[in-house]
Amino acid sequence: MVSAIRTVLGDVRPEDYGVCDAHDHLFLSSPQLPGQELNDASAARAELDAFRAAGGSAVVQWTPYGMGRRAADLPSLSRAAGVHLVCATGLHQAPHYTPELLDEVRGKLADVFVSELTVGIGTSGVRAGIVKVAGGFHALDAHARWTMTAAAEAHHATDAPIAVHLEAGTGALDVLDLLCGELGVPPHRVILGHLNRSPDLVLHREAAASGCWLAFDGPSRAHHATDWRMPDAVLALAEAGFGHRLLLGGDTVVAGARSVDGGPGMPYLLRRVRPRLASALGEELVERVLVDNPGRAFAAEWR
C-alpha cells in the first residue's frame, strides 16, 4: 500500500506536505470554555494566511467529534489559504461534552470513528485523518479507556494515527501501556501531545524509546514556567537519538490566542519557536522536526 496523509482535500504524499503545525485548532467549542469559542471562519482564514506568510504549509487540526469542528468549512479554507489541513475524529475528555451527546455515541464509538475516517464527517464528505483522544491527570479514567479502546479499534480497521491529549503533559506511560500494550496499536502510530507541559526528561526518553511520536505544542496558556525549558527538553531528546520522533505544534484553543486577535497563534511556531530551537538544535534538525517527521507521523496505509 502507498502511505498518504489524509487531508480535507484528499490524500497527499508525505513528501508534498511541507512545513507542518502538528497540533492546532481552527474551530473549537466546549462547555469548559464558554465565550471563548473558535467559531469565526473569517478569523480562521486570516490565521491560516498568517501561518502561510510565515512559511507554513500544513496544519493538523485536533478538534474531535462534537466540539465544533465545522468540517464542511475546511476544504474551502484549505484551498483559499493554500495550506494542507487534516481534520480529526475522536473524543476528548468527558467534561467537554453534554451527557446527551455522549449517550448518542455510546455503544457505537468505534463505528463513528471508522465512518468519519473512511466515508466522511456528516454530509460534508470530508474524511478525518487522525483519531484524537485524551488521558487524565496522571491517570486514565473509565472515559479515557473507553475512547482509547474505540480509537484502537478504528486504527486496526483503517491504520489511522492516534493523537493523544496528555493532561498537563502527564500519563504518557499509562497511555502507551493501554494503547500499545493491551490494545496492540503499533507505537509509531501514536502521537503524544503536550510533552512541553511536563518537562520530565526521563519520562520523555522512556516514551520516545517506545517508538511513539512526541509533540511539543504550546506555548503554555497557564504560565511561562515550562516554555523556556522546552528547547532543553527537545535538545535532550535529540542528543539521546530521538530527533526523528519529535513534532512541533501551536495548539491555539481560544479566540484570544489567535495571532489575528492579539495572541501568539499559529505563526508563533515559525516566527519565535523555530529560531529559538534552531539556535539550540541547528536548522537541519528543526527542518526535520517541522517537515520530515510530520510527513511520517501523520501518513497511513489507509484501508
From TrEMBL:
Sites where the protein binds Zn(2+) 2:
132, 165, 194
Q: Does the keyword Hydrolase apply?
A: yes
Keywords per UniProt: Hydrolase, Metal-binding
Domain of life, per the record?
Bacteria
- Cofactor binding note of this UniProt entry: Binds 2 divalent metal cations per subunit.
Q: Which residues bind Zn(2+) 1?
A: 23, 25, 132, 251
Q: Tell me which cofactor or cofactors this protein depends on.
A: a divalent metal cation
Q: Which residues carry this modification: N6-carboxylysine?
A: 132
As one GO molecular function, the record gives: zinc ion binding
* The keyword Metal-binding appears for this protein: yes
Recorded protein name is: Phosphotriesterase
